[in-house]
Amino acid sequence: MTVLFDDPAKFMEDQLAGFLELYSDRLAGVEGGVVVSDVADRDQVAVVVGGGSGHYPAFSGLVGPGLAHGAVVGNIFTSPSARWAANVGRAADTGRGVVFAFGNYAGDVMNFGLAKQRLVAEGIDVRMVLVTDDIASANEPEKRRGIAGDFSVFKVLGATAAEGLGIDAVEAAGIRANAATRTLGVAFSGCTMPGAQEPLFQVPQGHLGLGLGIHGEPGIEDVPLMRAEQLARLFVDRILAEAPSEAGNRVAAILNGLGTTKYEELFLLWGKVSQELAARGLEVVQPEVGELVTSLDMGGCSLTLMWLDDDLERWWTADAYAPAFRKVSSALPKKSLASAEISTASQMEFAEADAAAQKLATDIRTVAESIATMLAENEDELGRIDAVAGDGDHGRGMLRGINAALQVLKELPEYAGPGPVLGAAGQAWADDAGGTSGVLWGAALEAAGARLENAMYYDAEVAAGVVQAFAQSMVDLGGAHEGDKTLLDSLLPFVQSLEKALHCGVELPQAWSAAAADATAAAADTAQMTPKVGRARPLAAKSLGTPDAGATSMAMIVNRIADHLK
Amino acid sequence: MTVLFDDPAKFMEDQLAGFLELYSDRLAGVEGGVVVSDVADRDQVAVVVGGGSGHYPAFSGLVGPGLAHGAVVGNIFTSPSARWAANVGRAADTGRGVVFAFGNYAGDVMNFGLAKQRLVAEGIDVRMVLVTDDIASANEPEKRRGIAGDFSVFKVLGATAAEGLGIDAVEAAGIRANAATRTLGVAFSGCTMPGAQEPLFQVPQGHLGLGLGIHGEPGIEDVPLMRAEQLARLFVDRILAEAPSEAGNRVAAILNGLGTTKYEELFLLWGKVSQELAARGLEVVQPEVGELVTSLDMGGCSLTLMWLDDDLERWWTADAYAPAFRKVSSALPKKSLASAEISTASQMEFAEADAAAQKLATDIRTVAESIATMLAENEDELGRIDAVAGDGDHGRGMLRGINAALQVLKELPEYAGPGPVLGAAGQAWADDAGGTSGVLWGAALEAAGARLENAMYYDAEVAAGVVQAFAQSMVDLGGAHEGDKTLLDSLLPFVQSLEKALHCGVELPQAWSAAAADATAAAADTAQMTPKVGRARPLAAKSLGTPDAGATSMAMIVNRIADHLK
């Protein structure tokens, strides 16, 4: 959804004004676009890129040393007019001529074509390089449209101009780069024009649109959603099937996000793509993963490969410094960290416990498995409660913690006693779950384990001491108080109820069971509280009426233990 | 929606693996995060930032010369464990100590605190700098959470470390930067955890959430959606009300996008924000507009100001070179383009036409206004048709063209004849609308105007000649053929029908009316065609069943002219 604008019809002008204000130290505005402000200093062929807006950093974000000298900026998804293209070309020209570079769309071809006619009539040498990288858009290479491959072609053009080559050589390099470039994209969701209420298209639930356009055109074919690994294979398979003849084994690569497919997702996919490329014997040179040619707030991504020869590799890797693309090789470090310097975690050692203690340790393992099952069943519900005023990760975090604990328990020797078992579980929980609840649960389990040591049975006294150590750790580390709407608000009532019952001589199973019921009630009562600490505090009002997720999971766990004590 | 992943529970590990592969030339992975690979070359205090993932480029994208030496990477929106933080700190330390910097969240405070204890026990000097920039999160500054102000604090820490300062000075600079930094954010839409079907929260339709969190926490208060100008004022008003005491008039600024609020929107808002700041007498130093601290695919943005003194300004503007933030001052141009060099459009001149010709020109203006009204009424419908296999901008493009034509007609002298009037309208249409239909309509109107010259009336012969010139221009320039599913598919049947009727002696109004009806039928028939040219061609199959938008608007326009001829 495009939200920020004043008059939707003036979106392009308004965004360009802000952009020019931002980069006023290095770019100048002309009617119809932007040019580098040091045109007069550059005795170079002018590379002028362009097309509609809505694709940032294409096109204005790619203007700067080593890249484009100017960008023509049309309205959203609309070719700029011939007058605008001519204006920007004229402003960027230093007398060595202008190369217009743009994606192969009818409107751009016509408007840049007319602009070329006008400038040629004025005595300026003008060439045109059309980008035709999208293999999904046509079988005939010359009919294909330009998508993220715009970037690799622009990059080569900018590098050749910066090398001082003449206009024939710059044009030829651009054509060569385009001939070596192939892209395939997929759409996950459509984009919304400023002022519009509905996206331009929608991808059916559970599907992706194969062969996307970068102007909100839906994919050519809707196929079922696939895992990242499968998508990586599909990208590589299809692009390699369209490899240029005489292709070598060195490629530039661009994994481009369309707008709402975010960085972490792209990195994840890149991990799979790079494995696929390596498996096919391709060597990737300085890959780019990020947003280079977007489509407003569209969801989706594309893979571009440009097969390199020595010249193309030099131009692809050359320095550039534009608002949205900066590569300065001298700023890179030279030396690598030896992997031996990287520290590893220490190994734990365990003394052998006697049989009764081992039996108790086995009971703890059984209960832990039971708690893991219970947490898995309640993951969604805990997440839902947590999302009301928090980030909704409580269910997942608890599950991650208990699963880490179970994993380390499987690796422990069977002869380990109950204290070390609890301690190891706590350490694994804290290390793997992270987060607030992770460190609190981990430390509390460690404290409980230290108290338990190699106890051989659990009577009222042992249980009370262990529970006390567990709770005290949470109080000390968390720094919260009863009534702050945290896990303490079910834990502390539980501890008080348990201690009182045990003190009065009630048997452990009955005392625990009654205390667990009190914990359940106390957890429910947190719905009436407002948070005093932690991330939920700023959202105090929204939190009213919903119980605390940490107090709720605490109550669930002591109840599950009660079931086992019976 | 987070779409790309394999196992949602391993999202963080998988994305980190891809990230490390991508930057293997300069970063090294350690358990729990990343460090610069040239640690051993840097005799510097190590700045180690961190927190949960889902915030890229925070935190791993900010590791590099002049910025952080390492980043601890937790699970999505979850604090990393103490072990991970200790690991990364240990790997980044060169013997001059470690400064941990992170947002003020309970989990991070506890885990980094424990990590500090462990490292101190190993003999490493460790300090902690907490970021507390979010003014919406608490009244008491020390209770505030850290959001996009993370970046300004990290930037200062990195610059001081790069200057070779000792750990006391680096820590003090970080605390000073945090004390000078204020942020306010707004949310437009929630974010979705990998594997989840629903976003963590939703902003009510037509509202924005004021005081967002960066972990999918909803805003503190839902307020009605506002224009960019109003939002800029709100940001500046509220942040200035929280300015530090002794604040000067120089500020660093960050306009940060949360994930799906895209660049063009941010630039547009920045234009308004910079005006507001200038109006309050504030001078902005090297503002940053883009995505620096995100929240998965959340919609929203925040404004951060850091009030500068001479030291903070030097550190804010210092060079840095990380994956996602690069500033190399020597790469910037030195000289500016004089504004006089920027070309402007030429002025048209008009001869005075006689009275009858002026009358005909007035008729043309009246018809143009009528067509504009009709196109405004049909903008949405034309957009809808166009969106089926195109980018949905046809209605808007046509409206922009006719409105540009009307505007220039208002500025023309009243004595201009019909030919110049049509010609000027065509030129304005092409210049302002851009796009394929813009250049075709513009050129065709110019051609029609050239044919019309200063005709004083329209008879059958004049009308036939003008229409012929109009159509021929579209055929020549567009290069399409009948049956390609373009505007020619209603225009050419219209021309044939009109010429035939006129040839047989039918009066112009009747002949035009009948031909317009034929155009309507022909436009409807394009629903059975598949596109052969243009952007819609790759989507041929999807296009079946929907008429061509250009053919449809053409038929609408000739029908509207028919109404006036009657």
Strand order of the largest sheet of chain A: 1-2-4-3-5-6
- CATH superfamily membership of the largest domain in chain A: Dihydroxyacetone kinase, domain 1
Which CATH class of the largest domain in chain A? Alpha Beta
Oligomer: homodimer
Radius of gyration of chain A: 32 Å
- Major β-sheet profile of chain A: 6 strands, mixed
CATH architecture of the largest domain in chain A: 3-Layer(aba) Sandwich
Share in β-strands of chain A: 5-15%
Shape of chain A, please? elongated
Unreliable spans of chain A are: 334-347
User: What name does the CATH topology of the largest domain in chain A carry?
Assistant: Rossmann fold
Q: Main interface pair?
A: A-B, 156 and 156 residues
Q: N-to-C terminal Cα separation of chain A, in Å?
A: 55 Å
Calculate the mean pLDDT score of chain A and round it: 89
- Overall number of domains of chain A: 2
Helical amount among residues of chain A, as a percent range? 40-55%
Instruction: Quickly give the structural class of chain A.
Output: alpha/beta
The tally of beta strands of chain A, per DSSP, is 14
Number of helices of chain A: 17
